[in-house]
Amino acid sequence: MIPRSLAPTIQRLALGFPVIVLTGPRQSGKTTLVRALFPEKPYISLENPDQRLFANEDPRGFLSRYPDGAIFDEVQRSPDLLSYIQGLVDEQRTPGRYILTGSQNFALSRQVSQSLAGRAGIAQLLPLSGGELMAAGLLSTGLDPWLFTGGYPALHSTEVTPSDWFASYLATYLERDVRDLTSVRDLITFQRFLRLCAARTGQLLNLSSLSADCGIAQSTATAWLSILEASYIVFRLTPHFANFGKRLVKTPKLYFHDTGLAAFLLGIQTPEQLAIHSARPALFETMVVAEYLRARWNRGAVSNLYFWRDSTGNEVDLLVDEAGVLHPVEIKSGQTVAADMFKTLKKWQTISASTAEPCLVFGGDGAYVRSGVRVTGWREMLVSPINYEDGTKS
User: Fold this and answer.
1) pTM
2) Residue 286 DSSP symbol
3) pLDDT-derived band at 314, boundaries 50, 70, 90
């Protein structure tokens, strides 16, 4: 198993909570991780029809088979089970007693908030980070292969090609999760919506334009986007609203959690095609923002990430908010650092009067300070996303 950065967070939560809830997209490695961390616990998959039927028809009898706790995989399949687990942990609050996993954040979060509030430690596992792959000696040699492949574990542990794997993954996702989460009947239109979202990764989210291009109502686009967020396909980056004397853009930006999936949806078939594709800068930005978010989640922390843009077009790709101190990050996919790459960062420092050290992440290699800006190559960023909270790197 590839060591996961989230493991220490789960182990820490298991010392303080009787229930651990691990969510994340399908095939991100949730089952592999919890079985490795808790090898002594029985493992039960509620995807198994027999086990699910038993849990749904006789939850008390089902749980009585595991008095010392167990790992229940895809627990959202048996939502009533959580109420009975609540009763058991209230009687005996043994830390780390039950380990629950699920791949539908919307359904599972609602169920946990209703039944296990204050009793469950919650963690989120995304596909492999570049740092995890690098530590395991599995990271692609170049930037374009990394953007093309993404971080789903199966793509780094088997011989399957990204095109074959993502085609199967999407078919499974559309047939199972989408139908489970909503009453979507036109899966072809939903898949077109998904591809249109991929074409907008790294851009301001314009729901009116997105719905018009897909031929659906804006209310439908809003609902479908929530589905993609709930199943960890996309996420929104919200703008920072600090008033620096300029009229601010208040529309969020849209990003995919995994660049490999986004590249597949864009019809990119090889890393060589990606290298000259018009979406390459957006995919690079997507990768960097997703890595920063993943680093936060792996520590068990909530997102502290924003972007900033004013009505005149000045924009900082990423703002890291640490205790009210905003650390700006500019993201450029070029391999060579040019003087004009610092322009936006300098402009933002002037407007905001910030003294925080700005950072430029670029598509080349190296780490150094230039013109008062910390310059970080993509490999260096993967190894150690900046942790401003304690002045170190994590």
Assistant:
1) 0.93
2) H
3) confident
